[in-house]
Amino acid sequence: MEDLARRIGDLIRQLRKNKGFTQEDLADQASLHETYIGKIERGEKNLSLESLVKISKAMDISLGEFFNMVEPNIENTNNVLYELIDLLKDRSLEEQTDFLTITKTFTKMLDRK
């Protein structure tokens, strides 16, 4: 896990610098504390999914794109899952639940073929 935290931190640092952001700029844009950003970038702190969403929005990158950069050899199935997460992350819980119900129904139909 330490290696993953380091890779994620390195990627966030690289993306931040590519955007021309300081740690303070990113912290302001993502509504996070500057020292928290520094700890994430150094791999000293595991970030929550909520913080990752805030950071990715601040840097105008989807979670799917982000995860693909962290682990470029992820199977296509995982990329599809990340795209689904991106589609659903800003939806209400009710909409997410409806989507899950529809997906389960559709999957059952496919299984019958």
Short description:
Helix content is 75%, strand content 0%.
Characterization of this structure:
The structure is a single chain. The chain is mostly helical and 113 residues long. Helices cover 75% and strands 0% of the residues. It has 7 helices and no strands. The longest helix has 20 residues, at 93-112. The model has no long low-confidence stretch (mean pLDDT 87).
Please give a handful of descriptors for the protein shown.
434 Repressor (Amino-terminal Domain), single chain, 0% strand, 113 residues, elongated, mainly alpha
What name goes with the CATH superfamily? Answer: lambda repressor-like DNA-binding domains
Q: What is the CATH T-level topology?
A: 434 Repressor (Amino-terminal Domain)
- In terms of DSSP E residues, the strand content is under 5%
Mean pLDDT: 87
Contiguous helical run count: 7
Instruction: List segments where confidence is low: pLDDT < 50 over at least 5 consecutive residues.
Output: none
Class from secondary-structure proportions: mainly alpha
The total of beta strands comes to 0
**Main β-sheet, in a few words?**
none
